[in-house]
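User: I've been trying to design a sequence by hand for this structure and keep getting stuck. Would you show me what you'd pick, starting by listing the structure so we're on the same page?

Assistant: Good idea, let's start from the same input. This is the structure you sent:
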């Protein structure tokens, strides 16, 4: 977690509206209790499987879901993929037992912003939620870079790669492209600011503009989409 960047939401921003998805009643209750006293996080719904999660999303339109992986009827990966198709601005934070790169790659391909371990301390879970809403990634930077390189190598392509001049690239500026290349290396906003010798606020603004222009909900999926569009190519870039 990175200092003040993960300590809370920007002043004036409404509370993050969250849905908890887990097939175990006690697990859902535990997460809700954990978040109960956080003024900037509001639990607006819960679901016991992926199908229920889709119904809850249609009713509440949350900002984010905390999504378990293994569930009956529809698992977390299938649900994440469907939710991102229907509600692309909704972020999904996966809840997992293990840091398995193969599984996490599938989660990124499905549209997840990252993951949090089931046995993580309360402050890590809360911090992960806040980092996603702040435009940061809850993925470990080295793990993120490794997974994104695997996506670039062809493991994550969802369709034909389009040229960088494609209108769906959102007409990124040269500076935003520079920031995007640092994002794919797993750098945090603070590290991007230091690398480019700019203020932290400016770095955060660039990241937010990139996310908006690429039409994604978070920085992880912004990089994934940039790979699919051919804007980034991690095979040849350092």
């Amino acid at each position: 977690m990175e200092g003040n960047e993960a300590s809370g939401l920007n002043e004036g921003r409404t509370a993050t509206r969250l849905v908890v998805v887990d097939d175990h009643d006690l697990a859902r209750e535990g997460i809700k209790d954990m978040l109960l006293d956080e003024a900037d996080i509001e639990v607006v719904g819960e679901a016991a499987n992926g199908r229920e999660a889709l119904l809850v999303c249609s009713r509440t339109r949350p900002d984010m879901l905390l999504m378990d992986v293994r569930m009956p009827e529809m698992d977390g990966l299938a649900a994440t993929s469907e939710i991102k198709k229907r509600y692309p601005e909704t972020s999904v934070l996966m809840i997992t037992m293990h840091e398995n790169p193969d599984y996490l790659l599938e989660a990124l391909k499905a549209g997840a912003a990252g993951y949090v371990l089931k046995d993580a301390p309360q402050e890590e879970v809360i911090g992960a939620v806040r980092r996603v809403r702040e435009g940061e990634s809850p993925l470990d930077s080295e793990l993120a870079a490794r997974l994104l390189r695997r996506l670039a190598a062809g493991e994550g392509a969802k369709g034909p790669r389009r040229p960088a001049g494609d209108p769906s690239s959102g007409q990124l500026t040269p500076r935003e492209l520079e920031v995007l290349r640092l994002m794919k290396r797993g750098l945090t906003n603070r590290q991007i600011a230091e690398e480019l010798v700019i203020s932290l606020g400016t770095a955060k603004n660039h990241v937010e503009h990139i996310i908006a222009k690429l039409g994604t909900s978070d920085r992880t999926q912004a990089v994934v989409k940039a790979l699919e569009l051919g804007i980034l190519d991690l095979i040849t870039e350092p």
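That's my pick for every position. To get oriented when you compare it with your attempt: The longest strand covers residues 41-47. The chain has two domains: 3-136, 143-229.
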